Amino acid sequence: MQQLKRLTIGAVLSIFSVQILAAQVLITKEQKQNATQLMQTALKSDLGMEIVTSLTTEIGPRLGGSEAEKRARNWGLKLGERLGFDTTKIEEFTMPFWDRGHLHISLTSPYQQDLYGTALGGAAPTKETINANVVYFRDIHALTEVKDNSLTGKVAFIDGDMMVKSQTGAGYGQANQRRRIGWQHAQRAGASALVVRSVGSDSHRFPHSGMMSSDGDKWADIPVIAISNPDADHLRRLHNLGKPLAISLHSESKWKGEVSSGNVILDLIGSEKPEEIVLIGGHLDSWDLGTGAVDDGAGIAITTAAAALIAKLPKRPKRTIRVVMFGAEEVGLLGAFAYAKQHEANLKNHVLATESDFGAQTIWQLVSNVNPKATLLIDEIAKILSPLGIVRGGSDVAGGGPDIIPMAAKGVPTIRLNQNGRDYFDLHHTPDDTLDKINPNELAQNIAAYAASIYLIADSEVELKP
Amino acid sequence: MQQLKRLTIGAVLSIFSVQILAAQVLITKEQKQNATQLMQTALKSDLGMEIVTSLTTEIGPRLGGSEAEKRARNWGLKLGERLGFDTTKIEEFTMPFWDRGHLHISLTSPYQQDLYGTALGGAAPTKETINANVVYFRDIHALTEVKDNSLTGKVAFIDGDMMVKSQTGAGYGQANQRRRIGWQHAQRAGASALVVRSVGSDSHRFPHSGMMSSDGDKWADIPVIAISNPDADHLRRLHNLGKPLAISLHSESKWKGEVSSGNVILDLIGSEKPEEIVLIGGHLDSWDLGTGAVDDGAGIAITTAAAALIAKLPKRPKRTIRVVMFGAEEVGLLGAFAYAKQHEANLKNHVLATESDFGAQTIWQLVSNVNPKATLLIDEIAKILSPLGIVRGGSDVAGGGPDIIPMAAKGVPTIRLNQNGRDYFDLHHTPDDTLDKINPNELAQNIAAYAASIYLIADSEVELKP
């Protein structure tokens, strides 16, 4: 559909402008050769796996605002120096720190059985161990209809359905409502705590963590716990049998005041237009249950390795290529907002921004949100990427990744190299997000696509702003 | 190979006896029709899924000797009554009870990171939280060479390799040595605790529990913890980088004295030779981390459903069909030994025994360990099972399943309907052994195979003893 729409727009351009566009060479023969060479090198290189192995092994989990995230920033700085970036720096910001702490949750009626759960980001601790009956809600819609103060002394459980696997991750936003806003209704109804079915597409005994939404500037006053899909299935079956459900819950999760975080900025300074910035990146922080391999060690590895391969070309591209390792993404895009604020005056010089933050499976599609002429450039880039199995997608697709949202909102053009996300929500925010889940060949395909496309945009003079 | 061997044995039988065998009808036309009908009914029936759903949902985890296992016995008794067995009873025995208790294990050097572990069966508790350096052993062989008292104040970690997936489960016995006897060497060397790589073929963040071997009548004086494969990979990578490893460990697992367990016995009384018993079964207990769906709720469901389908035939088979739901298998085949002892005088009347305890995937092979004439009967049964995709395997394969070992050792003939075990050790003894892992069609294929083969043996007059 997007392809058709774009062709139609092209057809109504005046003949004059079409002739001008056709006369221009958007990508030179030499640029194309360089891009092809970058792809071939990337496919044979182990650099991406080396980076994500090093990050997950030597730093481990790195919750936004934690001491581990600080170690990760220093790691990122050293990595940038070692890989030949021209400048490397950390830009700090402050943020409120939420700590998961210890949790114990078990079914106590109809019998004793441990549940596999985890606190959701922003949840309050239990004041003392909660022992309470459970009120079952089939989905978030059922809970939103609950009356004020009707759940006093009870624990609410929001069931729902396992996410259907999808290449694009469609369905996550909707499923995620129970995680995001469920607490507001449970708290309004006076519940002692809220338990929700994890938002994930796997049937493993892992809870999926993730941030809740604040209500204005207010966070939950109650503990909120996500349990694994098989545990939620279990509660559903017991509920459907008419068994009374009760749980015991002790959770230490809480806010712990202001701390420092930061973004790591690695630049390859442009040879002709150093002030123009092509920004790529991933997020350096991870949830603390796994080691953040797929989310988002992969994105850090893909974008850093891609830029490092470009750095080995005989000559720097015309524009500056900037790799940003964003801090504190998981806990609210805090690094992204800090970056957009700290660089607000200079965002006009950000000619493009894109992030890799959807796992480590192969890229299948290139979408963009740039002006019509630049769209033709992206079309040409897509042709060059086609040996990687990548097809051209929509040319009016907003958003270049979560950490790009704040700067895209201020007019920075974006592309996105869409990854196959079919298995992404199996691992997303679980203890199981570990290095072994990354396929080196798939990671290398990502790096090849980033290296070629970012090189071509950075070496181009085409303006991308709408 | 086994087929060839059997044919050779057949060839050297005297012409006279071959003629006699050929002249005998091992399976009548009516029996064959009944068997075929049983298979067709089983493939269309939901009974197996109903049983394993009920067991895992209404009882949940059921550690040998626990209150939950007692509830499971009562559940089994009621199930037998409801399904039309002629007699149902519980035969109790006493056993020592080991309780897992709470565990916390985390890496403390080179940095803080929780590890996903569980105590191994028979392990001692920590007296106080252990904070100690880790000595890395590449495998069990490396640890067996360690000198006495050379690990004082240290924690030993036995690495090893992930189990290769295998249809037959080959490799489990060897991999399992680190779980079984590792503690003896760690304790001899004075280690404060032992940590081992889980014995499993999955790369998920689940530890695999399981019983250790006692040393004569002595159990470990130290805590012994299995960690998940990804956690073990992590420690290996850090070790290979030359990083000093240290852990913090607190474990409450311990022996808690004598308790009661029991076997549930459900009989379909034979119409002509009620004293002759064809015994099938599974084990009712499970490890406590999962809900024991695949191990061995499936075996309970398969064998009970198969017998229940036979019970619906117009006439009972000639021999008695006995379903035994063994207690306390996981913790040392305690129900199996109790059964063999309690029925010692009558084992001569057990014409055949077999157990389903290798998951819920499809049966692919029928093996046996019976006399040559009975081998021909089993050959004929295999032909009848062939529409289920089952092939005939060896005719001198000892052992009909773990709980059959004690009675097979006393001369009871066995067959085994070998299941595809390729994914079995992904789930084995983990929190992830839950109902969602069972494929209803595969379970039904198992029930079809059991129903047909057990019916044919129970309705036969062929003696099976060697």
TrEMBL record, chains A, B:
Major localization listed first in the record, in broad terms: endoplasmic reticulum
Residue ranges of domain Peptidase M28 in the record: 263-449
Alphabetized UniProt keyword annotations: Carboxypeptidase, Endoplasmic reticulum, Glycoprotein, Golgi apparatus, Hydrolase, Lysosome, Metal-binding, Metalloprotease, Protease, Secreted, Signal, Zinc, Zymogen
Xref: InterPro entries: CPQ, Peptidase_M28
Keyword presence, Thylakoid: no
Localization per record: Endoplasmic reticulum; Golgi apparatus; Lysosome; Secreted
Gene3D superfamilies reported in the protein's UniProt record: 3.50.30.30, Zn peptidases (3.40.630.10)
Pfam families hit by this protein: Peptidase_M28 (PF04389)
Complexes and interactors: Homodimer. The monomeric form is inactive while the homodimer is active.
Name recorded for this polypeptide: Carboxypeptidase Q
